Amino acid sequence: MKRLKLFIFVVAGAIAGYLYYFFIGCRTGTCPITSNPYLSMFYGSLIGVGIYWTFFDNKKR
Q: For the segment 5-55, what is each residue's pLDDT rounded down to a tens digit?
């Protein structure tokens, strides 16, 4: 169950990254992240993992 939640957040982040590239991305090609859909999806999935770790990783430290 925990891995499924992580997978969902990674995929949702990748989709959000692609949507950011598609609707807002850099038109001139000079922006290193938003001019490439793969990099936008990669960074979006990293943000999805970060959100998962922040709110749903309930390990006691």
A: 999 999 999 999 999 999 998 888 788 888 899 999 999 999 999 999 998
Torsion sign, CA atoms 46, 48, 49, 55: positive
Give the rounded distance of the alpha carbon of 30 from its chain centre. 21
Exposed, middle or buried, 37 (CB in 10 Å: 0-12/13-18/19+)? middle
Q: How many C-beta atoms surround the C-beta of residue 16 within 10 A?
A: 17
Task: Locate 40 and state its tokens.
Answer: 């936008």
User: CB count, 10 Å around CB of 6?
Assistant: 16
